[in-house]
Amino acid sequence: MRTKIATDYWIKTSREDFRAAESLFEKRLYPQCLFFCHLSLEKLLKALVIKTTKNHPPFIHDLRKLAEIAKLSLTEEKEKSLA
Fold first, then answer.
1. Would you list the DSSP string of 20-31?
2. Distance between CA atoms of 24 and 40, rounded to whole angstroms?
3. CB-CB contact of 56 with 68 (8 Å)
4. Predicted pLDDT at 2
């Protein structure tokens, strides 16, 4: 049950950050929008880490590393995009 609570937390806050990114995009604040997009994606990956490993995600911001820990199979192009 704890993993569900933690996963739900990461997904909920990811959605909130993505809504903030959309608002920033509309205001043409692109660097800030990009920051919140990264944050949103990071939180989704952390939810996947929990689902896959049943452990809390590490305190990192490296999207490629989080995807690796979550055992996602990515193309080289997608790995570069996460970098």
1. HHHHHHHTT-HH
2. 13
3. no
4. 86
- The DSSP-derived string for 6-58 is HHHHHHHHHHHHHHHHHHHHHTT-HHHHHHHHHHHHHHHHHHHHHHHHSSPPP
In this prediction the pTM is 0.92
Task: Identify the residue whose tokens are 């996460």.
Answer: 82
What would the pLDDT profile of 26-83 be if each residue is shown by its tens digit? Answer: 999 999 999 999 999 999 999 999 999 999 999 999 999 999 999 999 999 999 998 8
The token duo for 67 is 């995807």
Structure tokens at 45: 């990956």
Neighbours of 49 (CB within 10 A): 25
- Hey, how many other C-beta atoms are within 10 angstroms of the C-beta on 72? 16
CA distance 60 to 66: 8
